[in-house]
Amino acid sequence: METIDILKQSPLFAGVDRQTLAEIGRSLVLERYAKNRELLPGAGAAVRFYVLARGRVKVTRTNGHDGRELTLWLLGPGDGFDIVSLLDGQPPVVSAWTLDEVETLAAPMSVLHEWLERCAPFRAAVYRYIAKQLRELTELAGSLALHDTMTRLAHLLLRHFDIAKDAGMSRINLISDLSHEELASLIGSVRVVVNRLLARLKREAVVEVHNGELGIVNLKRLLRHAEAHAGSLPAGRKSRRDRSART
Q: 179: how many CB neighbours lie within 10 A of its CB?
């Protein structure tokens, strides 16, 4: 039952009926991984596909010469990886690392290929998921080429914020407890630059850290940093409250 509930909440299985979810679920194995563990360590990883059940995973490309890293996707429960290898059967060209203790539902690629053939709703959901990831990559490329670093940081914070119960503070989901180095990787920058920009936002009373989590205390001021490109904020996990707060 828990496996079915996880699959029901995953965009990869949107529209798939409960009976089919139960059949697919019987092919999946629950696996647990420690924090800071690499999950796609080379060619062998292309034989298995993973759906996140708990925790966060970052998917990255790294410069082999200087070690600089760009995070392409930050994944949470319900997300799957490596979607490209699922389709073409080739070894992954990205790395995936756990940011927390992680639980995944995993199956051989051959099993997922079989379900892609058999189940039209699953196939349609996978195509929609691929389209979403392509759109996010397009937005990332445009942001890196066209926006300055403060604008990219403002977009990142806006994309992930949610209203917290704490009076006067907006919690930032998925990224709130990440290090400045991890935040820099998400916007194609370096830690020292993000340190400086966040210090500026704190001085301007735009953000603050509460109980170890980064939060927004003045949304209007943060919007001003992003308003030049506010109409093209990268597509991400926008909650209903995210959208209403920006209008």
A: 11
Predicted local distance difference test score (pLDDT) of residue 109 = 87
Spatial CA neighbour of 31 closest among 12, 11, 1, 51: 51
Residues 76, 97: Cα–Cα separation, whole Å: 12
pLDDT digits (tens, 9 = 90+) for 112-138: 889 999 999 999 999 999 999 999 999
Pull the structure tokens for residue 90.
Answer: 């080739």
DSSP 139-164: HHHHHHHHS-HHHHHHHHHHHHEEE-
State the Cα–Cα distance between residues 100 and 92, nearest whole angstrom.
Answer: 22
pLDDT(81) > 70 = yes
Residues 6+ apart with CB under 8 A from 244: none
Model pTM? 0.80
